[in-house]
Amino acid sequence: MFESIAQAIPTDTIVYGGVVIQIKRLDLVHPQISGNKFFKLKYNFIEAQELGLSKILTFGGAYSNHIAATAFAAHQCGFDSMGIIRGEELANQPLNPTLATAQHFGMQLQFVSRQAYREKTNSAFLAQLQQDYPAHYLIPEGGTNALAIQGCQEILTASDLTDYDLICCAVGTGGTITGLIESSAKHQHVLGFSALKGDFLQRDVAQLTSKTNWNILDDYCCGGYAKTNAALLDFIQHFEQQYNIPLEQIYTGKMLMGIFDMIDQGRIQPQQKLLVIHSGGLQGKLKGST
Ligand SMILES: *Cc1c(COP(=O)(O)O)cnc(C)c1O
Asked: Which of 251, 256, 285 maximizes ligand 1 atoms within 8 Å of its Cβ, making it the mutation to test the pocket?
């Protein structure tokens, strides 16, 4: 399944402010599932298989693209899956489309309180989980770990490394951009648009790579994760009308709004050869909150 995905991802061309922008459409990999998530899962699933584990255990918020992608990919690859979902109260409500999709693909959902969920990176909590679910292969929230980064190194093809000098992507946990950075050529710059407020991602990613041909901006996060404003929603609507490429408001809408603004400001210039990674996320479109 993963082999067929990496091949032949289409690229669309748009022009704005005299800048030619190539958009790599990972969103077309599957109508509901974020393209970058497949790359993050690939080597994790191979590892699970090698360890003889038949069940995948992971975490996410109620609208998580990672949860939807894991459920789908696990189903395709013959794994059972369990998702630990933030928000105890959700157990008594009808499932939203993300969780309904996950359940449809066989993911068992377990709802935990926000307080318990906060422990998800705590080593004692994780050790306890491994004890409680010994046959499960554990993937962290958002799917980012060393194997995810290895998978994201396959997003760029050989010609991407010679045809472009600026590569843009949206950033959540930093796994995708780290893979792009690791695989990028020396003359290329990788620019990340954070969906979250703060400079911690710049520090986190610096821990994961020794390269320096990159940076992450939070200027276009619109106040924080899953926060929106009228300007962003307006931008997305106009962009979709003009270019006929769908965006969502959590990652790709903020990134493209940022790219257009940087072009307006002359911070991205017509002579630059620009590749933009459309990471998908359309299953979460206009669902708003985390
Ligand atoms: C998860 C996701 C990202 C962020 O990827 P990270 O590896 O967590 O930084 C970007 N775009 C979309 C659409 C996503 O679903």
From this structure: 251
Nearest protein Cα to ligand 1, atom 5: 172
Among residues 283, 281, 278, 274, the alpha carbon closest in space to that of 9 is found at 278
Distance 21 CA to ligand 1 centre (A): 20
* Token reading at 33: 């599932």
Burial of 286 (0-12, 13-18, 19+ CB in 10 A): exposed
289 is an active site residue: no
Compute the distance from residue 65 Cα to the ligand 1 centre, in Å: 8
Cα atoms in the Cβ-side hemisphere of radius 13 Å centred on 163:
14
Q: Ligand 1 — pocket residues by CB below 6 A?
A: 34, 36, 65-66, 142, 144, 170-177, 251-252, 279-281
Domain boundaries, the chain: 6-33+155-284, 37-143
Domain 37-143 has CATH 3.40.50.1100: yes
Which atom number of ligand 1 is nearest to the Cα of residue 280?
Answer: 13
Residue of 34, 54, 64, 210 marked catalytic: 64
Q: Do domains 6-33+155-284 and 37-143 have the same CATH topology?
A: yes
Q: Report the alpha-carbon distance of residue 237 to residue 256 in Å, rounded.
A: 12
pLDDT digits (tens, 9 = 90+) for 108-141: 999 999 999 998 888 888 888 889 888 999 999 8
pLDDT in tens, 62-86: 999 999 999 999 999 999 999 999 9
In DSSP terms, 190 is beta-bridged to 167, 214
Domain topology for 6-33+155-284: Rossmann fold (3.40.50)
